Structures are given as C-alpha cells and as structure tokens.
Amino acid sequence: MLLVARTVAVVVVVVLAGHPHTVEAKIGTFWHVTDFHYDLNYTTSGDPKRMCWDTRFSSGSVGEFGDYDCDAPFPLLTSAVDAMKKFDGEPDFILWTGDDTAHVSNDYFSTEVVVNIVTNLTNLIASRFPNTPVFPVLGNHDYYPKNQMPVGPNRLQSEVADLWRKWFQQLQGHGDVYNSFHSSGRYAADVPGSNVTMVALNTLIWYKSNNETALLPDTTSDGLDPDGQFTWADSLLKDLAKKNRRVYLVGHIPPGTFERYQQKRKGFHWYQPRYNDRFTQLVQQHAHVIEAQFFAHHHTDSFRLFFEEEKNQEQRIPVSYQLLSPGVTPWRSTLSEETGANNPGIRLVHYNTTTGKSRKLRLASHFHDTPLSLVNQNHAIRTSLHVPQVVDVSTYYLNLSAANLEGRAEWHLEYNFSSTYNLKSVSPVALYEVAKTMKANRTLFDLYYRANTVGLEDPEKCTEKCRLLHWCAITEINYSRFYDCNNGVRLSWRAALGVVASVLVLVVR
Question: Taking every annotated instance into account, which residue ranges of this chain make up the domain Sphingomyelin phosphodiesterase C-terminal (predicted)?
C-alpha cells in the first residue's frame, strides 16, 4: 500500500548568479474525481440488463456497490469519497470534473432532479472535506436535457453556482469566480499556496451532441467561438504568462478521439471539428504557460499529447499533455462492444507547489548526486525549479466484483506513474517516450491497457488494431491526422520505432 504524506520536501542545491542556494521543492497533492453518474433508482433487486431498475426479471445478482452494466448507487459513491479521505485526508484541493447523473432517458429527469443530484454529491464531498478548496466543473450529463446546454446564463447553471458559492468565494479568482461560472460555466482561480492558476473550461458548448452550438454556422462569431470562450482563454493565458503563473487547464469533455472505439477508422470524436482545431491551436500557442491538463468523460485511464506544430513523426516536439482520469461509475458503455465497463477509480496527483519569482538558474555539478527521485531530468533546466510540475500520479480502485462478494468496499492502490512507467516526473517529453515505448513493447502496453479499464479488462483482448488505435488516440489530437494514423498512412505499427534504444524499467502490478 502506498502511504501518502501531504507534503514532501526535496532539497536541491543550485548555483544562482555564481552563489550556491538551496531550493526546497514542496510536493503537495490533490484529488481528481469524476464521472460519478449517480443512479437514484438503483436497486439490488433490479435487472442489470435494464440499468438495475426493473425488478420483474431480477436475476438476484446485483450487488450493493454496483454492477458493471449499471451506473453507481450511493454506497459506491460514498465508498469512493471515504477512500479519498482515507488515503489522503488533507489534500491541497479537490478537482471534480462532472457528469453526476445516470445514463438514462431525459424522461427521468428535470432541472430540479439534476440540481438535487449535484446537491447530494456536493454535500457528500463537503462532509468529508469541509475545509478543502474544491474546483468543480459541469459535465454533459449535468444539464437537462442532457448535452443541450445553451450558451450563456441559464437556470441550471445559476442554481449550481449558488450551490457552489461557498467554494467559489474561498477561491482567489482572476475576475469574480462565482459570477464567471454563473454567467458562462467557466472561471479561473488560483490554487492556494502555489503559483498554479486553475483555468476551468465549459467544454459542453464545444460538444458535438450539443445542438445549441452544433447548428450555429461557421460564418458567425457565435459559431466559431461560442460565448467567446476561446477569446477569453487566449487573453487570460497571455495575462497569466506575464504574471509568471503556471496553468492547470481543466474541463470535462476532452478533445481528440476516444481510444476504445474501433467501429470506424475515423474514430469517435467528442468536439465539433472547428472547436477541436481551435483548442489544439490554443494549447500550442500557450504551451509555455500550461503546465498540465486534466480532463475526464471517457471513464477510462489514458493520456493525450500535443505537439509544437504539425511535423512528421521524427521531428515532432511534444509541448503539452492531458491526463484523462477514470470514472467512479462502472457502467458498461453502449457506444460499442469494445468500449466495455471499468472498475471504479479515483486519482491522486502529486505536484510541486513551491512558489517564488522565476529566475534562470544553472545546476550545480553535483546536481545528479542529490536525491532527485521526484525531479524529471528532461525538465531539470527550466525557467525555475519551482514550477508546479506533476511529479507522480496514483490511481486507486475498487474491485467491484470482490466488493459485492465480500459485502464491503475495500479500495486499493492500482498503480502509480513513477514505478509503472519509470518516471521521475510527468512532462510532455517523458510521456511521449512512454507512448513510443508502449508502441514497440507489448509488456509496457499491457500495463497501460489494463489500467485503461482500471484493472478490469485482460490486455489479451487488445489486438494489433486495438493497439494502433490507442497509439493514434494518444498522439494525434487532430481528426485528420488521427484518421491517417489509424489507417496506417504514416509509419506502420511494426516499423514505426525500429530498435528502441532503451526500454523502460517495467514494474508489473
């Protein structure tokens, strides 16, 4: 079991302006929890083929903590938040990225019902973490009707803003956090005690299933930039760069292509193409200030890479990354057969919180002799050592079958990035090396693939076609480039890397 301390100090000796100085890197933590999908009507006497609701044909096999064919009952959600409290009860903050209602017809919902569900989950988190800052965003299942969030102020967004007012008022914003969310569903706020600014996006207005924006023509500013969110983000990121802030970019729906959909070579996308392209451009233009990105929606565990510009495979330079967190719901998606279900998962992120003004430095000659297990040598020489770099990611999970069989929910550490991928910290360069090694090395890929469904699915099920899909989804955010990659237009799967110079040390979970 991994024991997590709230803050770890790593002392690094540097030479600054010709004189030795000591920089103390304080490692903090935060939870990323997402996709609860609380099912109000779940019952252990229900039929799992009917979302665990219908009791007329009950098999008697539905468990207290959920079923892989159904969304989450409240005991599962409670166990997840209790596990967060158990493994790290004093995080710096909590990131909660939405999707709180079940995957069922709109007939079962109303604005009032959705708000009540969000209220129940808000109270659950607040009861376990009463003094912890929370950065929440809405998912596409947090609106009624689902997916169809209009641009600008609306009743549901207003009521949720009031619900989260206490959290928002605790945050030091770039502009009024409450009013920003109330009017647009987005906001920017500083993480206390660090030089991190959280930029929380309303990704629902970019969703291809949202007819409120999908039907807007490209000939209008509303169609190209609904609610001016790209313009807002561009201006904000420029300002934050001037202030020497570092950004965690967060939202519910990610750009790019879903990694568990094999039905068509073009893949399955979430953003409207025009917004996918603009998001990619936004990241490329501001990669120097975007330290990391945290998104959700897939229910799976994966990551995405952004590159400096559109170059061929050998010349590409990774400049940003996005971590996709697994969901708490175990629900087996109906999108396609291979999408499958997952074990419930929650994620703890370890990051460097050290603050101060950025100054260029030269590392002392004995730098590599210091205890730097948490520092990535790829990023050893940066504008400063106090950037809020992610140094490790730990995913905890519940074996749902075992929990139902034993009658208790025992969450465990599933894996962490540092040991599984042999990472000293997380960076675009480091993750690109992981992706390339996974492409050539089946053993490492199998570790990634097992984590993708939070320890549920056997990697043997992933054929070469499946492996190619994952590689393309990770490395090609652009839809056309993904299509070419998945069609083998670029380098073939077997010949892509040739001989890997050095294989990462693998630690089998």
Answer: 389-487
